[in-house]
Amino acid sequence: MTLQIFILGTLSEAESHPYDIKKRLLKSLGNTIPINDGTLYYQFDVLQKKGLIQKLEVVQSDNRPEKTTYGITDKGLKALETEIYAAYQNVTSISALYATLFYLDKIDKNKLAYLIEEAIDKRQDKLKLIEDTDLDTLQIPQEKQQPLELLTDHAYHSIQSDVAWLKKLLVYVRSE
Q1: Which molecular-function annotations from GO does this UniProt entry contain (predicted)?
Q2: What is the dihedral of CA 8, 9, 12, 14, to 10 degrees?
């Protein structure tokens, strides 16, 4: 869904060609969203079939392939808003939110702040659960204790990092 959010968000600001969106995506997000031409054009096809975008112009020049300009529909604008909120309601990884950052001006900041607060609370609950877990009581064989400690340590610090980032995002959203 991240790629679709980026496509819809970009088209909400201006009509564009898929290739131009790919260049903008790579410039903005680098390799955080894996993309190839097949995936990109497939997503354009999906969005068009859903009625979220539409072809505006097809230009054919002499020795070049067709160049199709797309625009977003009213239904696409509503879907963009819905998908941005959904990304924050179901945060599985922080990197899944990257594409949304460029289009936060399309949504209600108070609603977004509430969703970010919920995401922070969920992660803080996970931190508390890890802190409260006594690994010694889990009856793990001795040879498995250190791998479990490493795994737990990584999970804990990753969640801490997510919370810190979400708090920075919350400050940014509230300052807008």
Answers
A1: DNA binding
A2: -100
